[in-house]
Amino acid sequence: MKLEIIDQQHQASTKGSIVFIHGACMGAWIWKDNFLPYFFEKGYNTFAISLRNHGASENNGKLRWTSIKEYVEDLTQVIDSIDGPIYLVGHSMGGFTIQHYMQKPSSKVKAVALLCSVPNTGLWKLVVRLLVDFPLQFLIANMSLSWLPIVKDKKRLKKLMFSKDYPVENMDSILKNLQDESFLAFLEMVFLRLPRKFQLKTPLMVVGAEKDYLVSETDTRKMGKHYNVEPIIIPNASHCFMLEEGWVFTAEKINQFFDLH
Question: What pLDDT, on a 0 to 100 scale, did the predictor assign at position 36?
Answer without folding.
Answer: 98
